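Support reply, case 0932

Customer input (verbatim):
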Amino acid sequence: MTVFEIPLSPIPNQTFTVRLGQHETQITLTWRNQRLFADVSANGKVLVLGRLCLNQTPIIHAPYRGFVGDVLFHDRNGNDNPHFAELGKRFKLYWIST
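Our regenerated output:
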């Protein structure tokens, strides 16, 4: 198993591209209604749109789409769902590949 931390900035809305295994992955995080949502594309194919980000819950959760592994948030100080003000500090985003 491979675990890779995806660097984040503590800002409410951000889009970035990161290589996760064989996938050139674009992730957009959007803060809306006091919740964080994710859009994820890999190699130009949309995997998820508007997925609610919850602590310890896979965001992509769709191996049938050809994406190896998954990404999820982890609260280093408890079991809260991610808040933009502490992204990259308390709330870490990880890619986990089996």
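We compared this against your earlier run and they match. Two observations from our side: The chain has a mean pLDDT of 95. Residues 39 and 49 are 4 Å apart (CA to CA). Please reopen the case if you see a mismatch on your end.
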